[in-house]
Amino acid sequence: MKMKLAKSKALYKAAEKLMPGGVNSPVRSFNAVSGSPVFVAKAKGAYIYDEDGNKYTDYMSSWGPLILGHADGDVVKAIKEAAELGTSYGAPCKNEIELAKHVVKAIPSVEMVRMTSSGTEATMSAVRLARAFTGRDYIIKFEGCYHGHADYLLVKAGSGATTFGTPSSPGVPKAFADMTLLATYNDLASVEELFGQYPDKIAAVILEPVAANMGVVTPEEGFLESLRRITLENGSLLIFDEVITGFRMSPGGAQKAYGVIPDITCLGKIIGGGLPVGAFGGRRDIMNMVAPSGPMYQAGTLSGNPLAMAAGLATLRKLDGKANYERLRELTDALVSGITEIIEKLGVKARINSVESMFTIFFTGEEPRDYKSVLKSDTKMYSKFFENLLRAGIMFPPSQFEAVFLSLAHTEKDVDKTLRAIEQSLSAL
Ligand code: KE4
After folding, report:
1. Residue 160 CA, closest ligand 1 atom number
2. 81 lies in the same domain as 136
3. pTM (2 decimals)?
């Protein structure tokens, strides 16, 4: 069925004249799929509506923050009330304490936390902090993990950097990239080798405890525990980038779910409830290095912004509770098991990695367990799959190397409609 997309196409033409690629973040450009993005007019619950009036069941979920669904009543109310009291003070406000309290209580590794305005700022600052605390310069990251776009983390990065074929971006000085050592996800030997080559020089190992930016790739048995051991043995810090997994995997993030406690944790997305919030936190002795308590400088005009704090607090308070996570898991399992049945019935070469309320369908026959294996996925097939779904009113992420997210606003009815659309979409490939 041909969708009316004239308004979005016209808007995209105008946007392309004003913004690189017509977007403010590359993955939104649909360049990896249909090439012309839909422009969203409004969103509510599990649905987004584009400027041409088309309705989509949304599984992008703004790349993770909207675990309650779009325009949740309580979150919107909290933002409206906060806005009436001012939009930014440049001075501390009570809700910064309230959100910090919630994070400290929920996330096992966090005794103190600093708010930022994005996940990139959180991970960038966490790496600087690890370097300041240890006095060492090298860091280890994993191929395919994405930690935002700070220079030293844009080395073999996932998400849009991989989608658009620039995992190591131009513009990053070689001197910076040289201090970012690359290991292979789920391959402990690749980490041990680097510690052997750079004794007493590695400040930290940073990773997504469950990778979601090369598509969803889960840590194999013992991998996280071994990273915890090897960093302790070498006097290096372990940084968990939980910008996606924080409050998604469980109220305590992946570290609670897997029982592996890092030294520093980065957060974002859900803790802002759709407004710009990131955070990094950890042991008190480490966090006391951060200005003004300590010498490591880090700052932000809108860090701890009252509206963002109100949105984050309303989200976390409403999300809290075992029942919500059970509901999210139950809905996701229904969708994933339905897709698995369809894949088997149609004999499609595809694998699904799924954790709690996020998953990725990889168009490959290989086990997607690290960057090398996920790169073998058939991205052209994914693009056609995405397009077919879009025409059926289902919005999946516009890239093979991202995660599908469910929210508490999705229903069994949405899952049934989605399964029918997926069956049609896969049959038409
Ligand atoms: P932001 O700077 O985009 O708020 O956060 C960076 C970041 C850090 N760590 C992880 C694990 C992340 O997933 C992200 C951002 N995720 C991407 C999508 N996978 C954001 C979408 C985009 O780039 O537009």
Report:
1. 23
2. yes
3. 0.98
